[in-house]
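Q: What structure does this chain adopt?
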Amino acid sequence: MYNAIDLFSGAGGLHLGFENAGFNIKLCIDNNDLVERTHKKNFANIPFINKDINIIEVAEIDTYIHDVSPLDIIIGGPPCQGFSTIGKRVSSDPEKRAKHDPRNELVLTYAKLIREVRPKFIVMENVKGILTLQGGAYLKNVLNLLKDAGYNADYKLINMADFGVPEIRYRVIIIGNRVGLPIEFPKPDHSDDPNDGLPSWNNCWDVIKDLENIGDAPSINHVALKHTEKNIARYKMIPEGGRLPEDALPPDLYRKNFGNTYKRLSRTRPALTMVPGNDAFPIHPTLHRSLTVREAARIQTFPDSIIFEGNRRQQGHQVGNAVPPMFSEKLARFIITQIEKAKELGLYECD
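A:
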């Protein structure tokens, strides 16, 4: 069994997939009391440090991995809202906004901590916006930090739908190693192009349709928002797979700044990206309401056994920020093939 620690673990989507693939998760770290509650409810067997990563000493991490030599991998997704084009903004310019967001420094802190802990492999997940931050210089700096620490590292923009997740969700995945292997990425196993010879993208309906006529079930985070009559009237105008027809709205229903909240999912397609927030989830394919937290979690491929703590808004943030476990498990299995390849070549024990 290979060993991993998860930085910025959140609701656990990344390490859940790695655990399902056979990794031993030695430690999870995040700086959030609510995340700690969710973690302890679902992963009581995995130690958790609730602390700002900027003040965590390597010696503290070593107390959890002292029996592991070497540590096989560090995984993690540093907070990404500062790169996102969704949500509140310091500026209308994403680059300026990102420069002002202190969360972005956590990506650099992540890279520096890797240099000190020195796992054999690394995986970092982030949003698409990191590609263009500071004209690409920010990501280049991250890769240079890893290179200076002795890692081959590269990135790829990956659509989760290409790996069977019923959601169109683009994320940047950085993979690195210090054993001398060239960087490779897992190959898609689904496609929207029939000429690729792969199974078609999975639709979102198959994973949520059994919840359509179930009433509120707080025990599994399935509670519908109580929408206003005005919003319900707007939702009734949204066609399946479409968005609110703003140009055709009667004056009493008009408002500015319609976003993902006013888009309806299609039963024959993957969902739109699940984004954090209590009311930011898209509209249900057949009902005149937004998705519940559980429906969003299903689309994110979380099993119903994972329960999210907090109020509905807080639950939504945890689900929307997570890495889909279906993808992370496939990524983990790919990493295992890379570790085994390094061992076959006699590279793994070299420092």
